[in-house]
TrEMBL record:
Residues 3-67 form the DUF305 domain. Residues 73-107 are annotated as: Disordered. This is Putative exported protein. Coiled coil: none annotated. InterPro entries: DUF305_CopM-like, Ferritin-like. Residues 85-99 have a biased composition (Polar residues). PANTHER family: SLL0788 PROTEIN (PTHR36933).
Amino acid sequence: MNRMMNNMTVQPKGNVDEDFVAMMIPHHQGAVDMAQAELRYGHNERLRRIAQEIIVEQMQEIAAMRLALGQPLGPSTPVPDQPTVPRTTNTPQAASQMHMTMPKDPR
């Protein structure tokens, strides 16, 4: 939340479109970050589904705003809560590796 609020604090440049995007992108990114936290640590399946939708929708809106101003989209990155071990591997070693790559529950 602090990162989102800090990034939304911009000095207006006088171009309403650019100022709008400069504040809205961090706002949308904050929603993505919170949704990723829900996917990592949440247990409620309804909320997890909502979080997945938020990530997709907010990332699409960020891309649309950048495109509208001719800004670069930035690198495409995988969702960080996905396992790094291929799902087709069903060995005890793969399971232990997947467990090691998943973030620990902070509770």
